[in-house]
Amino acid sequence: MLAKHKIVTLGLQHILAMYAGAVVVPLIIGGALNLTPTQIAYLIAADLFTCGIATLLQVLGTRYTGIRLPVVLGCTFTAVGPIIAIASTSNLATAYGAIIISGIFVVLAAPLFGKLLRFFPTVVQGSVVTIIGLSLIPVAMNNAAGGQGMPDFGQPHNLLLALGTLVIILLINRFFTGFIRAISVLLGLIVGTAVAYMMGMVSFASVAEASWFSVVEPFYFGTPQFSIVAIVTMILVNIISMAESTGVYFALGKVTDTKVTDQDVVKGLRGEGVAIVLGGIFNAFPYTAFSQNVGLVSLTGIKSRDVMIGAGGILVVLGLLPKLAALTTVIPNAVLGGAMIAMFGMVVASGINILSQVDLNKNENLLIAACSIAVGLGSAAVPAMFDQLPTLAKMMLQNGIVTGSLTAVILNIVLVHTNKKASQTAPANVTVSEAS
Fold first, then answer.
1. What is the SS3 assignment for 162?
2. What is the pTM of this model?
3. Integer Rg of the chain from CA
4. b/e per residue, 381-404, with b = 16+ CB within 10 A?
5. CA 72: distance to chain centroid?
6. What is the pLDDT of residues 286-298, one digit of tens each?
7. Distance (Å, rounded) from C-alpha 62 to C-alpha 71?
8. What distance lies between CA 144 and its chain's CA centroid?
9. What are the φ/ψ torsions at residue 280 (nearest 5 degrees)?
10. Among candidates 113, 139, 105, which has minimal Cα distance to 286?
């Protein structure tokens, strides 16, 4: 049992790892829809508050919902474009109505996903986890360079900050043990931000402007409205998130040495469905399991659910205290990028470790791993290749995790399952090789 101060510190470390991803979604959507600063501030507060509630529901779990693994839920980037499109053509109330209905769909559809898990053998799991890590690496490198689209992108001071943060994390892991090693990422972020402050790269203006207290209220942007097109769009978004989250669950299972069963996945997806409904009610966003926190669990070796309970509690508090929430936004992108390199790299290493348990001398397994990783990484690295396709197809195919996962599952069915059926029906005097 971890001491309370350690739970809070380790929980804060997980929040800092996912905070940029959680905050950037309301910032992008609010800016695209020309919302007022007050409305954008509410979006951020509502997002953090609901992130905390969703994480607690998933980690604590009930008889029917929650995977009860050390997972953090955050808003999915897949929903950004559709929410902007729906709200631009109608209004935000229609977008939130679609989010609520799509969350109910996820709850009802979760058992179907559970039945599909027989198509996720070790070679598919290892490929999917590897793809998750590789698809995140460009995010880390863009941040390390200062943030995509920023005027100082690629400047030497950003690269040095990222390198320095990464070196600090590595040195702490090399020369320290126990609790200090477990909070290596947090310490790296603190030291990196302190150095950036001395370089004049940190501003506390957003902290000064933020209010001390804010109450999240249901239906802030009006009573939900419903549109068939908007609902179908958000359902497709959440089907993508369900596939992505399934891969994250398997990755967490490997990292925590926990066997993830069909029923565990069903309960986890049900938990996400409930979280999505809450996101619609509190005018936040659809939620999914954040893969960056898997890398942090792997890097620190701390697998306790108590830490994630602490993280969920802190997120709820940050949602109620905007000034504290704003304090965490002063960390420069380059410092975050340096930490992300270590965390996301650990996800890749976990995937490679899973694949090491697979007999890659068998041509079927080799093709599944090779093609799925290539397709997933290619989709993530060159998303523009799908720009000429219809909007819904583009939305799915530009997600490297989805394309890679689908490739792995389809190849497993074609190369392995059909081969097994052929061997079962082949004459006794005919030899048919069987893949594992």
1. helix
2. 0.66
3. 22
4. eeeeebeeeeeeebbbbbbbbbbb
5. 8
6. 888 887 777 778 7
7. 15
8. 19
9. -70, -40
10. 105
Query: Token digits for 88?
Result: 């631009």
Query: Which positions ≥6 away from 351 have C-beta within 8 Å?
Result: 126, 127, 128, 129, 130, 131, 132, 133, 251
- Residue 340, CA atoms < 13 Å, CB-side half-sphere: 33
CA geometry: angle 333, 339, 340, nearest 5 deg: 80
CB 347 within 8 A of CB 297: no
Predicted pLDDT of residue 435: 37
Helix, strand, coil percent content, the chain, rounded in steps of 5:
75, 0, 25
Express each pLDDT in 81-125 by its tens digit. 678 778 877 888 888 999 999 999 999 989 887 777 777 777 887
Q: Report CA 236 to chain centroid distance, whole Å.
A: 17
- The pLDDT tens digits of the residues spanning 262-277 come to 888 899 999 999 999 9
**C-alpha distances in angstroms, 79 versus 51, 110, 233, 234, 399?**
15, 19, 9, 7, 12
For 143-154, letters b (16+ CB in 10 Å) and e give bbbbbeeeeeee
Name the DSSP class of 387.
T
